[in-house]
Amino acid sequence: MQIGSEVGVVLFDLDGTLVDHDAAARAGAVHLATKLGLPSPQEQWRRWAEIERRWFLEFERGTVTHTGQRIRRCREFLGDDQLDDATALRIYDVYVEAYRAAWRTYPDAADALERAAASGREVGILTNGATEMQARKLSATGLDFDGLRLLAATDLGAAKPNPRAYAAAEARLGVAGPGSMLLIGDDWHNDVAAARLAGWQAIYLVREGIAPHRAMPQEETPVASLSQIEF
């Protein structure tokens, strides 16, 4: 897939696009369940993943803060609605300990960033994650290339798919209009459909062996690897 010359800025989603979030989250959930003495720690991962998806969607909708969705995930995982915020966040830190240790990039990630930068375009990350977490993730995985722009929802004041997130990204980058923007990601709604509604170009990534997060139109042709994109 060839990128047009009109594209001046290439943004990548981070989790699920450049970094294998699901594998790291599984390691974190199993570690947390083990520490808490829950039965069948390996099986607890599926429950954690479902709770994570549900509460992160509430964050994307703007009904809870980023910190708030972490607290609510831990409360639901433990089945304790009365769990105080501080205790919930300490429990979340137990999860994060193993989650961070398991961060790994996809094999095509670094090369894609390097090729995008070599094309002379501005390159960055547009993520719904928290700034501190995502900056550490880029550093730990070796993806923090010089000049790479990190645009995180907690700094932008809105998360994908809120139109304000794309407008805020344009403002941070000093882009006069959306026509030169390209977003590459694995979430059909956040990284493709909503980006296009904002006037951006978008490429949908569906990695082999990984089920799409959301249904896509039949006429859409996704890429299975970042190596298929020519910058």
Automatic annotation (TrEMBL):
GO terms for molecular function: hydrolase activity. Keywords: Hydrolase. Pfam families: Hydrolase. Coiled coil: none annotated. NCBIfam families: HAD-SF-IA-v1 (TIGR01549), HAD-SF-IA-v3 (TIGR01509). This is HAD superfamily hydrolase.
